[in-house]
What does this fold into?
Amino acid sequence: MDAPTLSDLLDVLGGSSVRAVASPGGLGVPVGEILLYDAGTPLPHAPGAVLLAVGVRASEASHLLHAAAGARMAAVVVRGADGPLAEAEKAGIALLTVDEDAAWHRVHLLLSSAAGARAGSAPTAAGDLFALADAIAAAVGGATAIEDPRQRILAYSTVPGQAVDEDRRQGILGLQVPDSPENAEQYRALFAADAPLRLPAIDGENLPRLAVAVRAGGETLGSLWVVDDGGLAPDAVDALDQGASTAALVLLRARAAQELARNLGGDLLRRVLDGTADPATAVHRLGLGGSADPVRVAAFVPAGASTAPDVQQTALRLLDLVRLQCEARYGRHACVLVDGVVYALLPAADERGAHRHRQLAQDIVDRAEQALRMPVRAGLGAVVAGIAQAAGSRDDADLVLRCLDAERPVALVDDVQARVTLLRLGELVDGRREFGGGAWARVLAHDAAHGTEYSRTVTAWLEAGCDMAGAAERLAVHPNTCRYRLRQAREQVGLQLDDPDERLVLWLQARLSDAV
It folds into this structure.
């Protein structure tokens, strides 16, 4: 396939933080490798390269633009929005910008992965792992499995003629190592060792193993396990040790690919929730059914974190939990963290969708409260006809969150429709002079100045259907006390309580002041 272009890269990134602000040669310029600028070394001659201006302020990047153009590079990436556009046009090189707080290593990952994805040159991580398992099995001389730290089997060898046992068969069938006290003890020994370890058979139906932990920078990424039928190669230990080093690189690359997919998916879902994404593109890239399929937005928020680091860490843990639970029910799933709130896009084609969504939200809240040790709230917006209307469902979900408390931690918008309607009315009339003033404002001002309780009394009377006994019961006072307060309110504040229009406006103002 031909080399990707700047346009291809930006399309793959799909509205992430990388933006083209100048492109004198157009966005069809072919691009090659992604380079990090090093002020201590001359720029290499690198046609088509994209240069990340590490350590260079955007406003001071003019010299770098001309140097990169002289090296026939395709583009320079600066941090911040104040890059030298005129100099880029003059030098004839594209200028890309990223957010001021963007980490250069993440930008490098995004662009490198996007270039590889567009060029089609990078094999899948799964394919890499299975090929590696076969290579290790051939070198060591025994059937090999590659596992993650949770004892899930990521790949296994298929070299003909190598012995297998029941433990391997069951592991491959379920892609999970069978749970047993003997297995647990072997894993403890393996992860405590700093070299390949020979382990005895756990029972008479199985064979011994040669195993090694896979690590990078002190972090355990997984493990390699080889079935030992007594015929392993003489240098099996060294070969497995070398295999572990290669596996670490492949697993790190797989993690980077997953991180990239989540970052790009998160950026796209943010635009879906803002109503700025192209529906057809979003459906394809998020792996959804169709642009007209009904969806519902669910919003989850922790209600107990206090300090900023706690809030951020708790929200990230909640995002992982929501993603895990949604994927368990719906497969590949779209979840994103926005301003401390975790949003999930739920398919809603099933007639029993409301019940299932409520149950899913309740399960997540229960599990999150156990895992995070703090309360979590879940609000579910209305079902909308397609991803193009998801922003409306997100607005509903946000309003539902404002209606929740310890007594009701989970609700659909239909459950709290009246309260949500008041919140919407409050947003519409917020700041309107005619709604913020009038008789209700006079009542509040009189209470504040004289310590009276006319506002509480009027509200209780209106909510009791203008029944004096009912108002007195709400206030826990004698009916004569209510009658006296209302009379005083008429005389001192000028309330026209016999006017049905004024009663309606008073009630709305009282309810909306509580709602907002």
In short: The chain has a mean pLDDT of 82. The CA atoms of residues 214 and 247 lie 7 Å apart.
